[in-house]
Amino acid sequence: MDSVVSELEGSLLKDRDPVSYFMLVAFEASGLLRFALLLILWPVIWLLKVLGKGEYGLNLMVFVATAGVSESEIESVARAVLPKFYMDDIDMEAWKVFSSYDKRVVVTKMPRLMTERFVKEHLRADEVIGSELVISRFGFATGFVKSNNIDSYISSRVAKLFIDEKPGIGLGTPASSFLSLCKEQIHPPFMANENQYDHHQLVRPHPVIFHDGRLVKRPTPSIALLIILWMPLGIILATIRILVGLVLPMRAKPYLSRVLGGKVIVKGKPPPPASSGSSGVLFVCTHRTLMDPVVLSTVLRRQIPAVTYSLSRLSEILSPIPTVRLTRIRNVDAEKIKTELANGDLVVCPEGTTCREPFLLRFSALFAELTDQIVPVAMNYRVGFFHATTARGCKALDPIFFFMNPRPVYEVTFLNQLPIEATCSSGKSPHDVANYVQRILAATLGFECTNFTRRDKYWVLAGNDGTVSYTSFVDQIKKVVSTSKPFFL
């Protein structure tokens, strides 16, 4: 059987320095203080590397990022946050070589707990060899690793794994000690010979559809410094933007948003407001952030109510538009939506949860059963520093993180209202209508349709089905990890 052993850092990943991934663990698993401490110590880590003591620098990163953090929290960050940033840094030429072999092994100097899920699920590796964190009997990382010499540990593990026959090929930097165990060695930069490998090189890594975490960019030391310097200014800017949004009338908000750094790009022609006595239009939107219905109302310059499910109490208070809380009881929710449509226009996001990647989740078909006046709206957004959605974190902070971005940009594309022959009135099933709307919205945005649901997302990111029972507003504010999602149908 053909086999390959590849180094992760500097080979499968372009960046040889793993500091940004430890920064992510520090920020997402612990918070800003640990994140800042690791950044402060980065010059020491860099100096140790220059002096040939890189292993001491690595141990220092491991200690600062993980000491006192529960094993389950580190695993949660490795499952929900890190894969996106690993995937963005993949060297596709190295991947072509790596994926063309039957038995694939990845070695890394990072803790195995931080890399194993991504490497096995997305790179389809058979084995992952990395340092092992020392976990206390209470389930918390001590900050230490079990092996004092990571290079010797990796080499011994590779030798034991290939006790009968040497690995066919090794991918890594010239300093990688395990390469001496391989029959053939390839060093970066990698250039895959298209004629040398079979059809495997055409297979891409499994895509990352769901990911969590607040940071948009991988926090290299320079990016991490910018984030920390921006934080105080971002909080002030977010406060001003939220107060302006609550005080000003809807017609004035588009002008003030530009002054405060925001931008909304509108394409297509929106329908006029519903006349008195007639049923309203149902705006069916893709769901990128909890701001989708608010931005739509701002573009239309009138308040359009939005149906919600488990919207945080703080977000409800801060919302400048009316919200209609659903119950997840189908007939009750249908009556609520019918009542709102009888009074005017309404906004729904039938994906039921947000998705950051260029994919659309499966649409609930309930909206198609309730009206024939359906206007699809393709929503998308761009931010620079912080994501405005979370599955693991505190959802009450979602609007604050959105407005902390220097220049948030929203794109709103109005499609034509569905013709009668494309609705249930022509005999089509609600699922056919929902799937059709999903396809045309995906085509507009250049996204891919999927059959994944809200429940799938939460099992991947948070290890639960996303269902939350609320007790009080105070309990919601105190709750650090919440699984509520806004604007659900």
TrEMBL record:
Keywords of this protein's UniProt record, alphabetized? Acyltransferase, Membrane, Transferase, Transmembrane, Transmembrane helix
Membrane-crossing segments per the record: 20-48, 223-248
Q: Which GO terms describe its biological process?
A: cutin biosynthetic process
Q: Subcellular location, in the record's words?
A: Membrane
GO MF term (any one): phosphatase activity
Membrane topology, record value: Multi-pass membrane protein
Q: What is its main location?
A: membrane
Annotated Gene Ontology cellular component terms: membrane
The Phospholipid/glycerol acyltransferase domain sits at 281-382
SUPFAM superfamilies (alphabetical): Glycerol-3-phosphate (1)-acyltransferase (SSF69593)
Similarity section: Belongs to the GPAT/DAPAT family.
Q: What is this protein called?
A: Phospholipid/glycerol acyltransferase domain-containing protein
Q: Please name the source species.
A: Salix brachista
